[in-house]
Amino acid sequence: MAYINLKDVTVDIPIFNSQGRSLKKKVLGIATGGRVGLTESGKTIVRSLSNINLEIKSQDRLGVIGHNGAGKSTLLRVLSGVYQPTFGSATIVGKIGSLIGISLGIDPEATGVENIYIRAALLGIPKETVDQELDDIVKFSGLGEFIEMPVRTYSTGMHLRLAFAVSTMITPDILLMDEWLSVGDESFKNQAEQRLNGLIERANILVIASHSRSLIERCCNKVLWLERGEVKMIGSPKGICSLYFSRK
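RESULT FIELD:
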């Protein structure tokens, strides 16, 4: 059973070489949406998340909304283990799967097949599993003979199809997404959406950050509204979305 519990989670990100530059501090505050301040030792920090309390239970589908820089990506990074809270605690039970940065680790000089193994290894997928599913992955990607060519020879669409095919091999307890993935031409998009829907159904918990009202209302049973790194509101998709999106 998957479970997430954040208690008073605060994340401070240090900013180097910005001491004494008041203009730069103001720009950072606007750009990040966080709060710029100084530590006791005089180091400049941006408080990206502040006192986040959040409980996500089995079968929850949580949508995270907020303007750019509100802290959505930072929250996903805390949940994925990339960031550790500066203060507070994060209890996360279950295998994490992330569809953030699906092209991470792709080597342009390596072939498509070689990249399947490289990306799978980064995702923690055993080589034996890739061996068994390789033919299906190649078929799904639709790359044909290009699968044996270096990725640097691929078009952008081909590159994305390869990355998507490998990244969706995961079967996580907790699935993290930053926006809905849309890749390839129309025929591939239909296949990709079916594959993505299947992955979401298999996940015990889904956390997705998005600017799409229709997506949040369609996929989620809870919505977290972040503003300047703090919880503005949490509740039902219909209630929260009607308040948030009416402001625009």
